[in-house]
Design goal:
mainly beta, globular, four-stranded antiparallel β-sheet, Protocatechuate 3,4-Dioxygenase, subunit A
């Protein structure tokens, strides 16, 4: 079964093998979140796919492309540029999609009341960004590289540096969520969440160091394309 909106955003994976394993025993809390019964596939209806347009950000807030300057200061940590394209099948650009990200700060702590581990908060960084893709499907953020943090899944468990991404099309029903990892991070191989995606599909969530995006004496650049459907689709989480 397949369902897409007018911009080619798929609500179902083209290759189920690329999607997270469910349930994933190594990711302990997934046992509490996963249904105990086999899901029933229901064909989408016009009502399922209706909703307000993502273009015009009244529901989601304003554009935030640079996360490093907040409340009159500069965020601590290694500045990075994360940029890429949102693509549909056959490398077709998805224009006008709302791309959001959220992440921990350089010390590995989220600006959220639920995160209380012993790492400093940054008064100049809240870790939330939001842009609209251009006609070529391009997006670009300036942020800091997030730190690793403990997460209590098992003894001495640490999450690798990662950035959460959400892509929202013209309808609320067409929302996809994924994570981006950084290359050469040894924690990826030890992380149960990352390893819920089998190889080689897991590598589609790892950004690529891109010297054409890097700005000398200012910021490293990482390329991360988000492919919504087709043979090269990025693994996604249920929204």
């Amino acid at each position: 079964m397949d369902a897409v909106d007018e911009r080619g955003m798929s609500l179902f994976p083209d290759d189920p093998r690329s999607e997270p394993l469910r349930p994933h025993a190594a990711y302990k809390s997934s046992r509490l979140r996963e249904p105990t019964q086999t899901p029933i596939k229901v064909a989408p209806t016009p009502l399922d796919l209706s909703g307000p347009s993502a273009v015009g950000t009244a529901l989601e807030g304003g554009i935030v492309a640079d996360l490093t300057c907040l409340r009159g200061g500069v965020a601590a940590g290694q500045r990075v540029i994360v940029a890429g394209r949102v693509l549909a099948e056959n490398k077709r650009a998805v224009a006008g999609a709302l791309v959001e990200l959220w992440q921990a700060n350089a010390a590995g702590r989220y600006a959220h009341l639920g995160d209380q581990w012993d790492a400093p908060l940054d008064p100049h960084f809240d870790g939330v960004g939001r842009v609209i893709t251009d006609a070529g499907g391009h997006y670009r953020f300036v942020t800091v590289r997030p730190g690793a943090y403990p997460w209590g899944n098992h003894v001495n468990a640490w999450r690798p540096a990662h950035i959460h991404f959400s892509v929202l099309g013209q309808t609320i029903g067409a929302r996809l969520v994924t994570q981006m990892y950084f290359p050469d991070d040894p924690l990826i191989e030890l992380d149960p969440i990352a390893n819920a995606i089998p190889m080689p599909w897991r590598q589609r969530m790892v950004a690529r160091l891109d010297m054409t995006l890097t700005q000398p004496d200012w910021a490293l650049g990482y390329a991360f394309d988000i492919v919504l459907r087709g043979h090269h689709a990025t693994p996604m989480e249920p929204a």
